[in-house]
Amino acid sequence: MKRKKIVAGNWKMNMNLVESKNLISDLKEISAENVDVKIAPSFTNLYMANSSLESSKIEVVSQDIHHEQKGAYTGEISAEMLLSIGIETSIIGHSERRKYFNETDLILSKKVNSAVQNSMKIIFCIGEELSDRNNSNHFEIIKSQLTNGVFHLESKEFKSVVIAYEPVWAIGTGMTANSHQIQEMHEFIRNLIKSNYGVEISENVQILYGGSVKPTNAEEIFSLKDVDGGLIGGASLNSSDFSNIVKAANGG
Ligand code: PGA
Fold this sequence. Notes:
This protein is α/β, with parallel strands linked by helices. Helices cover 44% and strands 15% of the residues. Strand 2 (35-40), helix 2 (43-52) and strand 3 form a beta-alpha-beta unit. The chain is globular. 2-phosphoglycolic acid binds at residues 10, 166, 171-172, 210-213, 231-235.
């Protein structure tokens, strides 16, 4: 089974309108037959980004959604609002949301449900803290994040999920997990999916790695058997770094 690679840029809380326009105009040059390229600008720039990239193959996705459809939730954005501007995929459960905004497994499972109910696709993030790894709890943590966040979905619903494994200690630190650690965890995740949903779904699900992916390490990471691309933070803010990472995913 040959899974298509994904390279998704998570811009986080970076890039104002002018900066976003400039970066997007540089990214329009990217072409990669074998890779699905996605970018996640901030909410304020999603509409502009999606309109500017209408004729390109780059998909614009959101960094988060609220779990309710609508109502008295000041400052929040619903799946339905995103769909109304053409955004069909959302990142859910990024470690920064878990850590700084107290998003628990329960809240994340509700966000996942809202996305599914609205037929939105999901990039669901999981990852252990350094202390979990040092205490050899990393497999348990990953298992519980998946069990509580997405494994309640029915098989056909789970098909709209992409998993992003991002060890928290590797995010924005320059400290990438090594190839052995990455492949071992991706294989573990795929096996868990196999136990829950069967071989076919587990062979088709795309599992991305995130955490200090750079043009210099992308090729090695993407060559690992169970790695289907990457979720890129810092390096996605620089058009030449990002396009070189896409090239690495496209086969060099
Ligand atoms: P990083 O971030 O590439 O800057 O480490 C990855 C992420 O948070 O998705």
